[in-house]
Amino acid sequence: MLEAERQRNDTLDELVALLQQLIKKSGTNRTRLAERTGFPRQQVSRAVNGREVPSPDLADAFDVVFGCNGRIRHLRDEAHREKRARRLGAEPPRRDKAQPSPQSSVPKEGQELGLQATLPITPSPLPGRGPSNGPIGVGDPREARATDRRDALRAMALGTAALGPVAADLSRSIAGADPDPLSVDLAEAHIHRIAAAYRVTPHGELMDALGPEWQNIERILDRRVSPPVRARLTLIAGQYAFYLGTLAFDLGDDDTARSLLRVASQHADETKQLLPARSPRRSDVLLLDGSVAAIRSSVAYFNRAYSEAADIAAQAREGAHPFALPILAGCEARAAALAHRPDDARAALADMQEHLWDGAVMPGPNPGDAAFIHGFLAVALAHVGDGVQAEQHARVGLDLEIAANPDHYVQIGGKHNALCRAYLRRPEPDPEAAADAARHALLTVDGRPNRTVIQQAGQMWRQMDGKWPELPTVRDLGEIVQTSRRALESGPGDPASACA
């Protein structure tokens, strides 16, 4: 399979050229470089080849080994900023030209890896050998060497004195880069509060609150925070990006959703590199991966890319976190049914039912609980033409959702839509009952417009209007659909989970 083309990053290209030049000049290779830095060879190779921006710690290690006095770290930080800017479609920040040039950081010929060539490479003559033995006279090369050594020592003393304040400032900067531990703890706790309140909180307010909080965490990550704190904050930033991407999708802004979900996925990948192999937080990263896949599948599904939606969910379902697994199975089933892959749809439905989630709500999409299971059974079975069974599951799912919490307005609206679809897929369709169910779905989200509920109700109204335009209930539904669409297009409202 061909690798996807790497996003343009001029600063990363400059950094790669510098690293490759340093490796050649120093007479080393990537294996030795990995041993000297203490980082895995694969990670070193990815940095040297330009496949990824090196981590801050790896860039610092390169600076120490090659003696580049911070040049590599500076280029790494600028490459990271350029990557983020281009990823979000913004203009890359203007380059800082005050840093030393790459050429000034390249070791001279004969310099050992990681050592500065401050002493002559050619050894001095030994006593008793050759014409240099005896008192130093005018023109004797030993006099020049002695003068060079004195000058070098004086320069070294002056240079050391100048470096003292620089080192002190750097030490204070590193020591003060980490936010206080309580703030990190509170940020993690806030993610869990968002998960618990997501289905009942006005989502316009949630969008307004999450955006600035996410940007603040990203600014902290631009500092030289310690690796353990970086791992925690990177995961939190990924979870924020996931929720913001879900909100953007539910408001119908799919381009923004795709960008934010990509950021969330990149944060998940970075967190994996930062965490120890046996860290319990790896389970949280696995959940974030599955959550992102579920919403990416939903974006494809609501854009009628059904095969893509099914494939995204199916690939993520393998080894998924238990919380995400039934959600992914449901997303795959509904998409596979419309992609004319009924066997895949039924296999995914069986997996969904087998892995019903009955635990606490976790950071991610809406839980794959019993109400979710019956709702997605209704959707998928209706898609394959089994309207009778679909109606039974839709009724059970609606009752369970209302019993769980009558304020789950998006989920309840989705169950009404599932019932509408089931009425239309009966052997003898009931358009009046279907129109009434879709009307209830739209009224449930009235004042809190949601893309998934409005789009599905609108699609089913078009079907009914094409076959039964004379029915008053169908005409009335058309007016409500138009009003709901205008409310959604007018600006941020109250979106909720995609997998409803």
Automatic annotation (TrEMBL):
Pfam families given in the database record: HTH_31
CDD domains: HTH_XRE
SUPFAM superfamilies, A to Z: lambda repressor-like DNA-binding domains
InterPro entries: Cro/C1-type_HTH, Lambda_DNA-bd_dom_sf
Bias kind Basic and acidic residues: ranges: 88-98
Record domain HTH cro/C1-type: where: 18-73
Gene3D superfamilies per UniProt: lambda repressor-like DNA-binding domains
Gene Ontology molecular function: any one: DNA binding
Disordered: annotated segments: 77-146
The protein's name: Transcriptional regulator, XRE family
Species of the source: Frankia casuarinae (strain DSM 45818 / CECT 9043 / HFP020203 / CcI3)
